[in-house]
């Protein structure tokens, strides 16, 4: 016979490649689930508010931090206006 009998298929139906394919299929399913979770979080706005101009880790917005540095004299007016313009452009 050719090895295609019932119950004796190619190495009992799995063979060496079947186990690898099974593991890869599980990894594919996990990757799809993770991708769906990230997509839902991204589309629902669940990302960091820091990138959207919201408060950073210390509770201050970037514009507030910049105004504070300007008020303390760490940066001059030209630097303040240039950076403020950049912040507003990249919202």
Automatic annotation (TrEMBL):
Keywords from the UniProt entry: Membrane, Transmembrane, Transmembrane helix
One Pfam family, short name: SHOCT
Keyword Transmembrane helix among record annotations: yes
Domain SHOCT: 62-84
Annotated TM spans: 19-43
InterPro entries linked: SHOCT
Protein name per UniProt: SHOCT domain-containing protein
């Amino acid at each position: 016979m050719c090895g295609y009998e019932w119950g004796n298929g190619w190495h009992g139906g799995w063979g060496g490649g079947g186990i690898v394919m099974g593991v890869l299929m599980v990894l594919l399913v996990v990757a799809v689930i993770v991708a769906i979770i990230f997509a839902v979080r991204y589309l629902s706005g669940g990302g960091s508010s820091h990138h959207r101009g919201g408060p950073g880790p210390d509770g201050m917005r970037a514009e507030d931090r910049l105004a504070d540095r300007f008020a303390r004299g760490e940066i001059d007016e030209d630097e303040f206006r240039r950076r403020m313009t950049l912040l507003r452009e990249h919202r």
